[in-house]
Design a protein that fits this description.
Shape: elongated
Distance between the termini: 38 Å
Length: about 210
Amino acid sequence: MIQELKISYGHLFEDALINDILHVGTFKEVPARYKLMEIGDYVRGMPLLVSGAIKVLREDKEGDELLLYYLEQGDTCSMTMTCCMGQTKSEIRAIAETDTKLIMIPIRKMEEWTAKYKSWRNFVFESYHHRLNELLQTLDSIAFDRMDERLINYLREKARINKEDIIHNTHQEIAYELHSSRVVISRLLKKLEQINKIELYRNHIKILDLS
């Protein structure tokens, strides 16, 4: 575990902080599609991703989801940090996109390390900045991009995160994450197939060329 932690965070944290993380952190290994956090749950710790990817989603009053961003190796979730510091309930849903390894940091250590380690403080502030930019990109996409452009970007990102050209999601699941309808998504996917951008199969989508 120490080797994986150093690979993911050794360039950010000094050895003393790495040792503290190993001492108090709780290692978790979860499979793809595992729900790590639900809306309304109290947040008990802050995740540090060692490997894999987690998707972070928001839900509206009707129960429809919207994909906000992905967390990858070396990331943490700024929304989780905010809930931890304020001891409030989670406003997001976090689901493992791929098989994932992470370390959960107890709430009590977050404030202590912010004062003790400059590298930790910089990491937290940089994480807030990065996540804010991703949220603004998501907002811009919803406000200014056509749905076909959003769908193409979604498929590209899925392929990048999963490191393969096969998308193992139903049309309904894609519609949920893009806050659209299955009918619209199916129609747009069919158009992409007709121009040889993708191939549609019963249980998956194969990307041919989305450049």
